[in-house]
Amino acid sequence: MLLAGFFIGGPVKVFAVRVLYGSVFFRVRFRVRLRVRHLVMKILGIETSCDETAAAVVEDGSRILSSVVASQVAVHHPYGGVVPELASRKHIEAIVAVVEEALEKAGLRTDQVDAVAATRGPGLVGALLVGFNFAKAFAYARAIPWTGVDHLEAHIYSVFFGDEVPGLPYAALLVSGGHTSIYHVKNHCEMTRLGETLDDAAGEAFDKVAKMLGLGYPGGNVISELAERGRPGKIQFPRAYMDKAAFAFSFSGLKTAVNRFIQTHPENYHELIPDIAAEFQAAVIEVLVYKLMRAAEKTGCRDIALVGGVAANRKLREELAKAAKDAGLTLFTPSIDLCGDNAAMIAGLGYHLLKDGDKAPEDLSADVYSRAARG
Asked: Which residues span the domain enclosing 100?
């Protein structure tokens, strides 16, 4: 295996690479500066923030040459959610093969990669460290630049792989299993978070409600499919707008309302599962749409974007497209395969960070960044 030697041994190998190149640090940095000035750059992206091991090669931040994702859904399904320790171990098992496959599909040798970008957080610390340290070793061994990329900002960047892209600035709604936030995107390297969830993320609420109903994990797709057969409004669940003038979200109360309905209707709630799913989904979508439209109004943006794993939800796309059209706004969404965690978005944003001079310092740590992001 071409890359195995750079990862097997974990921290020991990373340390060895640092020692080897520490003696020629000036020469390495000189080559780094030269490489970053290249107009055409092929970036290797690595993503291991949660339960997907992903690698991709992107040219000039816009052309995806390859994108490989190894999912762990089958591993975590019996537990009803992601088990951090298992996720980390599976990343260790998969990372070398996934990176090699990405390079092979892109038609590149390892010495033809111009730079590396890896997710630095937020995410599961153990999972992040696998991809992050692999990226460090890969870059140091080849004396090429590398950078750490914010996982959430990379999701926001994912809309720039389409045929039509939003104009800057724009307002973006990020909805995933771990995060629900609204951003004002001024440029690729400057994104201001306007608000976020105070408790459960929307995707997390989908998973937990699915678990309550005995539908398994992950819950997004199954809730969405059942909602197609249900009648929203037959059962009433609350809409948690919080402060309508602000951009905070809260889905914990909605989740509790679903649980209370199940507890108070033990005899017949099974017959009403499609209606429960439909009303729950409607309650989530109504708030998400309202908040993004409000953000567009406040920031004066005419373009808006929907990104993240929950952006694959068909009903959410439809309702947001309808609201955007009524308001005279243009909605941008990534392709379905780019909604979930992937490394193409990491490489794409990494290209712009490197152009902007954001090369990673030697002591940049996924562990430190992840804890700081949560705190």
From this structure: 4-156+340-374
